[in-house]
Structures are given as structure tokens and as C-alpha cells.
Amino acid sequence: MTQRSTKQIIQSDEELETENSSSIKQHSKPSEKVQQKDKETLKKTQKQLVALQKKLKKLEKGQQKGITPLNNHLDDSEDGPESEEEDSIMFSSSIKPIEVIPTPESETQPLRQVYSHDQQARQPTPLCSPSQRLATSSSTNDITKMDCKHRMERQSPLVEKRPLSPSATSSPPSKSLKKPLLLVVLANGVKLSSAPKTADFRDAQVRTLILRAVREYEALICTKNSFPSLSVHAQWAESCWAIAQIVPNDELDEGQRYKFTPRILGVIQRRGSTMCSRLLEPTRTQVIVCFGFRQGGKERGMKWNETSARNLYLNKTFHYKTLIDHCISEWHSGLFVQADFKEDNVGDFYKVSLANLKKWTSLNATVTTNKRKKLFDHAFKKLGGLTSGEPQVQLKGDTEERTQKELEGHTGETDSEGDEHDGEAGDD
User: Fold this and answer.
1) 10 Å Cβ neighbour count for 107?
2) Phi, psi of 14 (to 5 degrees)
3) Which stretches make up the DUF6532 domain (predicted)?
4) Among 150, 329, 392, 403, which is most exposed with the fewest C-beta within 10 angstroms?
5) Which pTM was predicted?
């Protein structure tokens, strides 16, 4: 019995082994089929890649001729069977190297049809000209126009930077149209360390332009600010140099300008800084005549001068806060004491006076402007200035008689103080 049972066990073991081996063989056979199927799929995919390469070459040739045969792609994708084996990939129109697809280790994934506008937009493609679009066939005309419009809007940088018409842009003209600035040349023997002056420059044209710029600069000193900051000095000088070259000049071509140099800046600033000093002496003479200051060391004359100076300070608050104020202050002790008109001495007082004058003007802009204009016109005529235009009043009838009566009390040899006081009273 024991031997029989042993034999039965051995037989059962052998049967199990045979079953296991057969099952293993059965399982191994399907895996080989899958591998064979994968190989066939891979071969088909490679054939499709070869066909796509040929189509890609045709597309490149068509683009070189200006024809984009997109109908072939659309027809193939729309009319072809929707099977995994016949799916195709639509490539962008740009030239791009094709990489070798690695052999899959396991079951290959089915290919999908992919078409990305963003991918196509990132690739630079040539623009379609109107003549090239007209050369296409009627069947592809609409598609080509849409494709070109899409590319021009999303791809080409020329569409964004180049305007379609001159009115479509507000950018200034190109700098290349402007002529280069001419360089100024110094005369022979001029040392760079010397103080700048007009005679340092060789060309007479440059010297003439400097004198024009100096006149403009002096006008700003007299009317805007007598003691501007260094930065304002430089800005005014450069602006006056540009204005001087705008004046019509036969020797300079249209658009031709000289370069502004630091030495030209020094000449303009130096001449402008002496403007107030050059006006000081004529103003002193006029102050003595107009306000009746008495020269000499007599006690009666000293009291007269002291009282006159004090009254001018008290009653004419804003009318004389200028260079005239400096000349009046030289008589406040009764005797004439000459003082230097420099920024170190009068700069702080001038700035406070200028701020007060601006505040006074803002109280009533219309009235104060008319008063200042009247004062300027009166001084301009007294200094010999000529007004433009024909005179509006003629000496006839009552006007002639009134003028004759006014002249009876004058000799004409000295300035009339009565007329000036009358004019000042009328201004107040």
C-alpha cells in the first residue's frame, strides 16, 4: 500500500509539472504574438513617417513658390478613415529637423492628430505678398488669405513696428534726417585754462551766434531772475544758444547747427553775470535826477536826502524793489555811499523781494499787470524807445491849446519833476 501511494504521489507531481509547463508555454506564446504585433505596428509607423517626409518636402517647395497647399492636409484629415493606423500628424510650415522615434519597450501608444496654432505662431514664417496670393488657385485662395492674415497678426514683428501710413504713427522723424552738429574751432594760441571770451573762437559765424545768445541771456537776467541757480544758468545758456541759431542766417544751411560746448557756456554766463553791474551806473545817474538827491556835504542837503530816501521806502513798497532800490539805499544816510551790487550782498534781499512781488501780483493779476506794463512803457519812452505804429492823437483844437498851456511853464533845459510826479500819482 505504501509503495502504491508513493507511486500515485509521484504521478500526481509529474502531472502537475506537465500542467505548469504547458501553461507556461501557453502564456509565452501570446506574449510573442504581442511582440510580433508591435513590430508590425512600428513598421507601419515608420512607413507613415517616410510618407510624411515626402509631403513635408512638397510643402517646402510650395512655400518657396508662394503656394501653400493646405487643401491636401484638410482633405486627408477630413476624408480619410478614422483608424489608429492611418492617423497623421500635421506639421507646421517651418523647417524643423525630424528626430528619430525611439523603439518602444512595451506596447506602443496610438498616434493622435495634433495641430497647434501656438506652435505654428512661435515659428518665423515668410510673409505672403499680394502678388503671391493672386497666383494661387481659386480653391486655395480663401484659405491662403486667412492663413497669411493669421501669420501677420501673430507672427511677423514687421506688422507691429512698421505703420501702414504716415498718419498712423505719432513718432518723431528719424534722427538720421537731421544734419550732424558742426564743431566749433578755437583760434590759434588760445589756452584752455584761460577765462572764456568771444574772441577765443576762430569762425566769425560762431562769434556772431555767441553775441546773439548773450543778448537773449541778458534779457532773462533782467526780466526773470537776476540771481538764478547754477543749474538754471546752464539751462538758460543752452536754450539761448539754440534760439540764436534759429534766427535766419544766410551762412548756415537749413537744419545746420553748431554744437553747444562748455566754453560757450562759460562765455554766455560770464557776460550775463555782468549785466546788472553794467546797468548800475546809468541807474545811479537817473535816480539822482528823478528823485532830486543833492550832492555835497551841506547839512540841509543831507537832511533832504535822508528824508527822501525814507519816504521812497515807505510809500513805494513794490515799485522800487529792483536795482533802483539799491541805488536809493546808497543815500539813506544823507550822503552818497557807493555799494557793490553783488549776489553776496543783495542776493537774499532780492529773493525775498521777488517772492513779495509775485504775491502782490497774484492779489489782482489784471490790475497789477496793467500797472507794471504802464511803468515799463513810461520808462521805455523816457529812455528813448520808439513805439511801433502811427500816433493815434493829433494836435488839433482843444488838444493843441492844452499842450501849449503845459509848455508855457517849462524851459525845456531840464527834466520836469512835475510831469513825473503827476504820472506817478496817476499810477497809484
Assistant:
1) 11
2) -65, -40
3) 212-321
4) 392
5) 0.44
